[in-house]
Amino acid sequence: MKGGIINMNEEHQEKEKDVTIKIRKQDLWKYATFIFAALFVISLFWHPFFNGTGTTGPTGNTQQIPPDTTTGPTGNLKVNIEANDPVLGSKNAPITIVEYSDFQCPFCERAYSGAIASFKQSDYFKSGKVNLVYKEFPLNSIHPFAQKAAEAAECANRQGKFWEYHNMLFENQQALDIPSLKSYATKVGLDTTKFNKCLDSGEAKDEVDKEEQQAQTAGGQGTPYFVLINKDGKTQAVSGAVPWSNFESAITALS
What we know:
Blueprint: H1 2-46, H2 48-51, E1 55-56, E2 62-63, E3 87-88, E4 95-101, H3 106-113, H4 115-121, H5 123-126, E5 130-136, H6 146-157, H7 162-171, H8 178-187, H9 192-201, H10 205-217, E6 225-230, E7 235-239, H11 244-254
Parallel strand pairs: 4-5
Antiparallel strand pairs: 1-2, 3-5, 4-6, 6-7
């Protein structure tokens, strides 16, 4: 009997060990599942697609996604408009839209084909009440082709064909490599010898870098970013690829 009791105790202990091991395995899976779930949630907030800083674009590189909102800096913003800045519309317009943009940014292309296209069809533009000034704001950390595209546009500006070249870049956003940039110069009728020298030597780099700094000083944190300014120096910020109606509201506020 004594031996039988010992055997029963040993069998009971073995069953307890087995149950304990099974429970511990189940707990381990629960903990592992919880950890993986937590890491996944954290990754959502850090991943560019979810935090509003980027996604994969037509060139296969990370593209910035600006917020689809007009929320931006308030108060009078510091805006530099210089003699060499390309102007679309009447130079004497009482209100200017200053656009800070990136040729590789897909949302900048959306603004180009959306709100800016609507602007060019509006009475504000046709009557000379509002004009548009373009400033370079390449986001080099996520757009590897943006810097040279911006320099190329500035090289075209030096030959008086900024807007023709600007349009060519946005309409061919999937190809912004150096050979493509040079081919566009031919298509818009630039002096290619001067253009290629300007692009290859980096003659326009300082201008692009200066405008990038101006964009940040004006409150720009992503692209596209716009600041509307009237003759009194009052400003309204518009951020993101928003509808033209958002600009109309800003124009009304400045009129």
